[in-house]
Design goal:
Elements: E1 4-8, E2 11-14, H1 15-37, H2 42-67, H3 69-74, H4 82-86, H5 91-109, H6 113-138, E3 152-153, H7 157-163, E4 170-171, H8 174-193, H9 201-217, H10 233-249
Antiparallel strand pairs: 1-2, 3-4
């Protein structure tokens, strides 16, 4: 659609990267605000957010390399191309790596880990919702052909050059499906975290809701990766995060509410 926000000669600012950065900042701002409300150290939470952001980017790239390992095995030079650098990678592997980094950081700084993960959940959701708009602008993660009234047709040659999205074919706007699902999940989590809830309930709810949404959206996407038993690798990851979210929701530890001035 609109892959380049600003172009000056051969230099350009990608819309995707700009919106991903904006999503990260918005998500971090909301997370720090929620941390203050829940009585957690805003400095520790802000640092954790930055570390998780870096880990998420690296994890997303790692997932991309693992999913498309045949391409990078036969053409290792592709790893260092501009297209690979600009690609955000696989969101769910990025989320898993960020989750591991968060657990290690939380243990090191002796933070209450379930409460800490809870304050991050709404920020992650809205950050991803904004980032997916950048995905739509770039044309990546496109959907299957469809003739539904809301189908989108990419016509910008730059989008095809950067992501390979087919031009002139009505497609499912799977990027917008994903963004819309995350925005709805964000609204629900923000409402839920402000009320009485158990520790781990917010992050558990996020994992369950997004895993289910992503699992079904994947049926409408075009996949370059091979499927296993009729499911994409992303769908198998969704099943894993769904089970983890259910486990967190089954945690029955009561959570005392802080007293606010």
């Amino acid at each position: 659609m609109f892959p380049r926000l600003i172009s000056i000669g051969n230099f350009f600012v990608p819309t995707y990267g700009t919106l991903v950065a904006l999503g990260f900042l918005v998500g971090l701002f909301i997370t720090v605000r929620l941390a203050k409300r829940e009585g957690l150290s805003s400095d520790l939470i802000a640092n954790l957010g930055i570390y998780c952001g870096i880990a998420g980017l690296l994890g997303g790239k790692l997932g991309m390399f693992l999913f498309d390992w045949k391409i990078y095995w036969h053409e290792p030079g592709q790893i260092f191309t501009r297209e690979t650098l600009q690609a955000a990678g696989v969101y769910q592997t990025g989320l898993l790596v960020a989750f591991i980094v968060a657990v290690l950081y939380i243990r090191r700084n002796k933070l209450p880990w379930l409460d800490t993960l809870d304050v991050f959940a709404p920020g992650v959701a809205i950050g991803h919702a904004i980032g997916r708009l950048g995905c739509f602008a770039a044309g990546c993660c496109w959907g299957r052909p469809t003739h539904l009234p809301w189908a989108v047709t990419f016509t910008n040659p730059q989008a095809n050059e950067l992501t390979g999205v087919p031009l002139g074919i009505p497609l499912h706007p799977t990027q917008l499906y994903d963004s819309g699902a995350e925005a709805i999940i964000f609204a629900f989590l923000l409402w839920r975290i402000r009320g009485q809830h158990r520790a781990g309930e917010i992050i558990g709810s996020y994992m369950v809701l997004y895993s289910v949404a992503r699992f079904f959206i994947e049926f409408l996407r075009i996949h370059e990766q091979p499927t296993e038993l009729g499911l994409s690798l992303t769908q198998w990851i969704s099943i894993g995060t769904l089970l983890l979210g259910i486990w967190l929701l089954l945690n029955r530890a009561p959570r005392p509410q802080p007293v606010h001035a």
